[in-house]
Amino acid sequence: MKTSHCFLRCDGLIILLLVMFLSSVSNLATKINGSFDARGTKIDSDPKRISNSKGGGSPPQGKEYPLCGLNNPSEDGIIYAPFCDKGYVFSQIKFADYGQPSGSSCETLKRGNCGAPATLRLVKENCLGKERCRIYITDEMFGPTHCKGPVNFVFSAICKKT
């Protein structure tokens, strides 16, 4: 009788350990594709907080297509999550600025006078070669902007078929 009682308790313990192990492996997998801030520190992502990308890219017509978007952190949240369509990856980051960029279209974007200097480098590090990436729109990510007034994040890239 004692052996069957221990047997049931031991099975429950094994199941509990298995569930805990699988949960930790699943949690680790969600953090593999993280972002890095201006200091090179990895920032873990929380998938529940990801806002939709305002990418506005054209549907794929061939081997590559442009993707462009704007994020106003005070209105859109601090996470910008651009993504290419399935089967495409970011092959080129044409422009990225966190500050007060100018330009009326993706083709005419220009860096503002007060933007964070590390923006383009960090976006390239976090997005190139990936189908999707998460960009945290904060001073902690890019460094201070020194802008007076509201800041925006503008992003322009090329998605290429893999």
UniProtKB/TrEMBL annotation:
Signal sequence, start to end: 1-29
Entry-linked InterPro entries: Lectin_gal-bd_dom
Region of interest: Disordered? 43-64
Instruction: Report TM segments.
Output: none
Molecular function via GO: carbohydrate binding
Q: Which UniProt keywords apply?
A: Signal
Query: The SUEL-type lectin domain covers which part of the protein?
Result: 84-149
* Name by which UniProt lists this protein: D-galactoside/L-rhamnose binding SUEL lectin domain
